[in-house]
């Protein structure tokens, strides 16, 4: 991890140690390990879904490839670009919070949240479009598929909505967490704590990015 | 649901340890089981015995030499040799059981294939010559019987304890199971996979008969149509013949002799026309579109039951490619003119 | 060690003296108090699941279905399975004893994330109560395995609520697993190297690893069931080309390793008990550790043995069978080593030791019948029969629950500062062993005779064995109720235990009973390997 290269103690390592720990180093390591493990379990959560999808993608190769062609690649690509950009702003937030710059930290957080929210809006628009095209086999809505293999397409769209829905849920959780940190950063009362929180939530945000990239390549890119 | 006790043969009460051995497989399996139980019993007794012996000898109240424990190296060697011994024993048992399983899995050439469809909460049986039964299966002794299992709703499991065989009936797939009965008599049939409210009443019986008795039983069944005949009439009544037979072959491939042959697909590649393929083509016709045809066939999903599908498959299986005099070289696209129409009536 | 002195004074300031208001419990971050919260929750769920089991056994006394309707019966065994597996067995040892002991065993003041620990308990209890309520109100009849397409398309019961509840409880498992792993990695006292960890800590480590690796896959699988029922999004629907067997693969990918979640902690507890009451260092410490980790890892390679008759390919079957035979090897080594630990020991037949012996015996039978089931040809015959039911009860109840009770008795003086009745505890241990065998041994025979599991009615000639089994269940119930009585009694009337009533090694015994709020007045330094009961000798343990 890119810390402790400077001679001064990094901001995140200052402040009082929680009572169960001996040293700040121990506390920092424990927090970081915990977050990595949590993200590992999240990856496995999605992993089960990806595994099932890939299994079906192999069994019903043509139907799935064709159904993928009915997704809006432009919007998907735009969303990918947006999310990667928000990854950049989040990384910058981390730098700024460690450099103890309240204003920059706050505004970069706001930028990250704004881009994330835009992602959700675009995603929602995409879902609405699919709803209009009757490609949303959810809650017994009519599903009329213009292609050749409607059953498999329905299966594909089932996966599509579960995967993008679960990802969007993680985005919303992330946005909520960033929103809380943004209010805390606005007040700027306990800078070392803010720096630690920004670092940990930055890990989570990067994870959400990574998951999206996998979802995007599985659903949008593996088309005919 | 009324009680179905009548379907279940009575067995004498009292304590037994083994079910009857009534198939060719049962004896081998019991032998393996006894072998495994013997090995396990020896190990269990060894553990119990050592615990009792050590507890007696080294109880805190007894004065015994306790100082010299085996050295680290000795105990390591002991562990390794225990590990090695267990490994050898376990691998031996593994080889034995796997050998037996592979025999069961591959199975010999079957004398007849009987279709079995599970449905909440009954077993529907279709004999090759058209006799149909519910919750009862008559089989001849001494012949290899193959069952083709499927389900109309949830997963069931076809289990005959006296034959030591079992296989799940999974909706949407065909599973095979074979056995050879050795003794005439009545044997129990259970559903072993939990399938809902009346799971425990999804029972029936196998009636194994001497071949002569079996033939007599068949003859007594009176009027019946074979699955081929039934399939042929279904083939017409569902309107399949309108496109797949006769002069309208432009719209759909002829199906004469398609069974068991590779079919070229519109997407490139080929697929083997087996039971699963034919079933899929009826329920999900767009899944594999034959090269040269448009995906215009409607799905029959929800309109046709598993028994009917099996009959149509039997009918398609019975069609010979040679019947197609006009275009014998092309098995999938050939037109089937008058001969093709005739097949439908004389399977 | 010198003989334990019971005259040590009652500590003036300890973790229980901090207050007894509801808030002091429900909002505590002290791992010991949270251990008690879990203790209360799982005891509650255990008895609910136990009532369901008794009703099942009562129904099975007669071949016909006369006590319960078929649907009620199906709901009973589903409730029994769901509650016992997810709300009792999985959290039993790790979340109660583990919570209480892990920080003390490694010389830490608390777990790494005390608030997360409290959150885990709240998540667990709310999720589990939610399921129990739905089961009582709306009922679930899928069995604990939720097999599709029955669970998604056919049953009309409250599968959605049950799957959601189990999904929520899964998060508690994940959070607890992370907490233990981080604690064991980062919070060990000076000198407490990995090879000086008590085996209970190693077992908890392996358990946590499985929880972290497997639970997410179960979560997503249950989530897929929930969305199928809620939104009609069919992932396993055969009509769309979905595969019901894929569900089984995903389910068992979690649930087979979960079986090891339900036995590894028991192995850890028994290693502590045997060494303490044989006054001996454990035979082959290093290979015990390797076995624990090998079981945890091999546990991920054997899930397919639940599908030998579901139609997986022959080669897959052979591989899964091979791994299932191999996973028995580390368990065999552990059993051998426990037995060898007795050699030249100084054996005390206390109640915890009786439980430990029960564990070894029952686990041996359970494990070896597992070998019989791993033999594919035999599995074809006994799959989904009472043979399987007996086998896994020998592991989970004979193994895990016995170890859990042994552990509760062993650490009771540490948790409460008081001793329980020696006589009654031995009676309970014996009732448990006898009742258990009477309940479940006949089921092996029933299974080989061909009685399928989850049967509400059965042919009349199975009745004798079923009656034996039901009688045994009565004795077993006594074995479980007795400790509830005398342990509760000891809370008020038990003799003060002193810091180390058993004369055990291990850091948790070096602090007072009950321990102070942050466990140690001063963080200890560790300078010797675990189980140094023969401190006069020089022999190493590996």
TrEMBL record, chain A:
GO cellular component terms attached to this protein's record: plasma membrane
Heme-copper oxidase subunit III family profile domain segment(s): 32-224
Membrane topology qualifier: Multi-pass membrane protein
Main location per the UniProt record: membrane
Superkingdom, taxonomy of origin: Bacteria
Transmembrane stretches, start-end: 33-53, 73-92, 104-122, 159-182, 203-221
Compartment(s): Cell membrane; Membrane
Entry keywords, A to Z: Membrane, Transmembrane, Transmembrane helix
Pfam families in UniProt: COX3 (PF00510)
Protein name according to UniProt: Cytochrome c oxidase subunit 3
GO molecular function: cytochrome-c oxidase activity
GO biological process: aerobic electron transport chain
Family in the record: Belongs to the cytochrome c oxidase subunit 3 family.
TrEMBL record, chain B:
Residue segments, region Disordered: 323-347
Domain Cytochrome c intervals: 226-320
CDD domains xref list: CuRO_HCO_II_like_2 (cd13915)
Catalyzed chemical reaction(s): 4 Fe(II)-[cytochrome c] + O2 + 8 H(+)(in) = 4 Fe(III)-[cytochrome c] + 2 H2O + 4 H(+)(out)
Record flagged with keyword Electron transport: yes
Topology relative to the membrane: Multi-pass membrane protein
GO cellular component, one term: membrane
Locations listed in the record: Membrane
Transmembrane segments: 31-56, 77-96
Biological function: Subunits I and II form the functional core of the enzyme complex. Electrons originating in cytochrome c are transferred via heme a and Cu(A) to the binuclear center formed by heme a3 and Cu(B).
Protein name: cytochrome-c oxidase
UniProt source species: Modicisalibacter ilicicola DSM 19980
UniProtKB/TrEMBL annotation, chain C:
Gene Ontology molecular function, alphabetical: cytochrome-c oxidase activity; heme binding; metal ion binding
UniProt region (Disordered), positions on chain: 508-542
Pathway given in the UniProt record: Energy metabolism; oxidative phosphorylation
InterPro entries per UniProt: Cyt_c_oxase-like_su1_dom, Cyt_c_oxase-like_su1_sf, Cyt_C_Oxase_1, Cyt_c_Oxase_su1_BS, Cyt_c_oxidase_su1_bac
GO biological process: electron transport coupled proton transport; oxidative phosphorylation; respiratory electron transport chain
Family: Belongs to the heme-copper respiratory oxidase family.
Pfam family, one: COX1
A cellular component term, taken from the record's GO annotations: plasma membrane
TM region(s), chain numbering: 36-56, 76-97, 118-140, 160-182, 202-227, 258-277, 289-308, 314-333, 354-378, 390-411, 423-445, 465-487
Location(s), subcellular: Cell membrane; Membrane
Cytochrome oxidase subunit I profile domain segment(s): 25-527
PROSITE patterns hit by this protein: COX1, COX1_CUB
Domain of life: Bacteria
Protein's UniProt name: Cytochrome c oxidase subunit 1
């Amino acid at each position: 991890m890119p810390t402790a290269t400077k001679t001064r103690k990094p901001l995140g390592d200052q402040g009082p140690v929680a009572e169960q720990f001996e040293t700040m180093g121990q506390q920092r390591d424990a927090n970081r390990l915990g977050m990595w493990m949590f993200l590992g379990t999240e990856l496995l959560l999605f992993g089960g879904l990806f595994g099932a999808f890939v299994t079906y993608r192999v069994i019903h190769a043509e139907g799935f490839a064709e159904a993928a062609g009915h997704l809006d690649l432009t919007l998907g690509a735009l969303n990918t670009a947006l999310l990667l950009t928000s990854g950049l702003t989040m990384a910058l937030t981390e730098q700024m919070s460690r450099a103890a710059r309240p204003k920059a930290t706050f505004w970069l957080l706001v930028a990250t949240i704004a881009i994330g929210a835009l992602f959700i809006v675009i995603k929602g628009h995409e879902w609405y479009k699919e709803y209009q095209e009757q490609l949303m086999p959810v809650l017994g809505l009519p599903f009329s598929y213009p292609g050749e293999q409607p059953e498999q397409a329905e299966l594909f769209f089932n996966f599509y909505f579960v995967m993008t829905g679960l990802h969007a849920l993680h985005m919303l959780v992330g946005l909520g967490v960033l929103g809380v940190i943004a209010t805390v950063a606005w007040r700027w009362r306990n800078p070392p704590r803010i720096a630690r929180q920004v670092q940990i939530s930055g890990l989570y945000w990067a994870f959400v990015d990574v998951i999206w990239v996998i979802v995007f390549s599985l659903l949008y890119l593996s088309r005919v | 649901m009324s009680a179905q006790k009548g379907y279940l043969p009575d067995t004498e009460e009292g304590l037994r340890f083994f079910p009857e051995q009534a198939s060719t497989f049962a004896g081998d399996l019991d032998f393996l089981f006894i072998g495994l139980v013997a090995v396990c019993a020896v190990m269990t007794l060894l553990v119990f015995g050592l615990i009792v012996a050590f507890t007696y000898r080294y109880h805190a109240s007894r004065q015994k030499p306790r100082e010299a424990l085996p050295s680290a190296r000795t105990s390591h060697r002991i562990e390794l040799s225990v590990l090695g011994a267990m490994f050898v024993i376990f691998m031996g048992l593994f080889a034995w059981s796997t050998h037996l399983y592979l025999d069961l899995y591959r199975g010999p050439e079957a004398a007849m294939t009987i279709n079995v469809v599970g449905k909440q909460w009954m077993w529907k049986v279709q004999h090759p010559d058209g006799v149909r039964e519910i919750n009862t299966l008559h089989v001849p002794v001494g012949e290899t019987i193959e069952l083709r299992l499927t389900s109309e709703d949830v997963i069931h499991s076809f289990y005959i304890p006296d034959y030591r065989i079992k296989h799940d009936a999974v909706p949407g797939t065909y599973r095979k199971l074979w056995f050879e009965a050795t003794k005439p008599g009545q044997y129990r049939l259970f559903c072993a996979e939990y399938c809902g409210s009346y799971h425990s009443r999804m029972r029936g019986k196998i009636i194994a008969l001497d071949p002569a008795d079996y033939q007599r039983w068949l003859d007594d069944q009176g009027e019946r149509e074979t699955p081929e005949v039934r399939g042929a009439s279904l083939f017409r009544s569902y309107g399949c013949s309108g496109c797949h037979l006769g002069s309208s072959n432009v719209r759909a491939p002829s199906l004469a002799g398609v069974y068991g042959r590779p079919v070229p697909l519109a997407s490139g590649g080929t697929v083997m026309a087996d039971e699963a393929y034919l079933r899929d083509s009826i329920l999900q016709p767009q899944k594999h579109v034959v090269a040269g045809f448009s995906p215009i066939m409607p799905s029959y999903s929800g309109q046709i039951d598993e028994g009917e599908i099996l009959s149509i498959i039997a009918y398609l299986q019975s069609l010979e490619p040679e019947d197609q005099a006009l275009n014998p070289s092309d098995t999938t696209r050939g037109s089937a003119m008058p001969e093709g129409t005739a097949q439908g009536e004389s399977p | 060690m010198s003989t334990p002195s019971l005259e040590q004074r009652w500590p003036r300031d300890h973790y229980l003296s901090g207050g007894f208001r509801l808030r002091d419990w429900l909002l505590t971050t002290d791992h010991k108090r949270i251990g008690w919260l879990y203790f209360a929750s799982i005891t509650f769920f255990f008895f609910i699941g136990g009532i369901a089991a008794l009703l099942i056994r009562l129904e099975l006394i007669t071949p016909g279905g006369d006590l319960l309707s078929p649907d009620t019966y199906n709901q009973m065994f589903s409730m029994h399975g769901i509650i016992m597996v997810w709300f009792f067995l999985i959290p039993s040892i790790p979340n109660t004893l583990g919570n209480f002991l892990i920080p003390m065993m490694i010389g830490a003041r608390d777990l790494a994330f005390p608030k997360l620990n409290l959150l885990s308990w709240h998540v667990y209890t709310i999720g589990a109560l939610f399921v129990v309520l739905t089961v009582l109100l709306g009922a679930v009849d899928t069995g604990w395995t939720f097999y599709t397409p029955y669970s998604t398309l056919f049953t009309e019961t409250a599968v959605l609520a049950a799957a959601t509840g189990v999904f929520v409880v899964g998060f508690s498992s994940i959070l607890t697993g992370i907490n233990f792993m981080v604690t064991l990695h980062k919070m060990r006292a000076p000198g407490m190297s990995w090879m000086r960890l008590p085996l209970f800590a190693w077992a908890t480590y392996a358990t946590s690893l499985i929880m972290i690796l497997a639970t997410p896959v179960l979560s997503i699988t249950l989530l897929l069931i929930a969305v199928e029922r809620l939104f009609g999004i069919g992932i396993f629907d055969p009509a769309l080309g979905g595969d019901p067997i894929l569900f089984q693969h995903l389910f068992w990918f979690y649930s087979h390793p979960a079986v090891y979640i339900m036995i590894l902690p028991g192995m850890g507890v028994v290693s502590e008990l045997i060494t303490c009451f044989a006054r001996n260092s454990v035979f082959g410490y290093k290979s015990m550790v390797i076995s624990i980790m090998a079981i945890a890892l091999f546990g991920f390679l054997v899930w397919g043995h639940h599908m030998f008759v579901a139609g997986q390919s022959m080669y897959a079957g052979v591989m899964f069978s091979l791994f299932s035979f191999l996973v028995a090897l580390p368990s065999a080594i552990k059993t051998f080593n426990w037995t060898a630990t007795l050699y030249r020991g100084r054996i005390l037949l206390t109640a915890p030791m009786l439980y430990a012996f029960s564990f070894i015996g029952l686990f041996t039978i359970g494990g070896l019948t597992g070998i019989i089931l791993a033999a594919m040809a035999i599995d074809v015959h006994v799959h989904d029969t009472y043979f399987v039911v007996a086998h896994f009860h020998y592991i989970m109840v004979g193994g895990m629950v016995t170890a859990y009770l042994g552990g509760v008795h062993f650490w009771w003086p540490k948790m409460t500062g008081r001793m329980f009745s020696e006589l009654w505890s031995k009676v309970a241990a014996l009732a448990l062993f006898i009742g258990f065998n009477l309940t479940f041994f006949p089921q092996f025979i029933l299974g080989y005779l061909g009685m399928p599991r989850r049967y509400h009615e059965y042919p009349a000639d199975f009745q004798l064995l079923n009656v034996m089994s039901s009688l045994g269940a009565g004795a077993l119930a006594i074995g479980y109720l007795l400790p509830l009585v005398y342990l509760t009694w000891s809370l008020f009337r038990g003799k003060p235990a002193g810091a180390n009533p058993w004369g055990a090694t291990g850091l948790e015994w070096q602090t007072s009973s009950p321990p102070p709020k942050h466990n140690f007045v001063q963080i200890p330094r560790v300078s010797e390997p675990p189980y140094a009961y023969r401190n006069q000798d020089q022999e190493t343990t590996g």
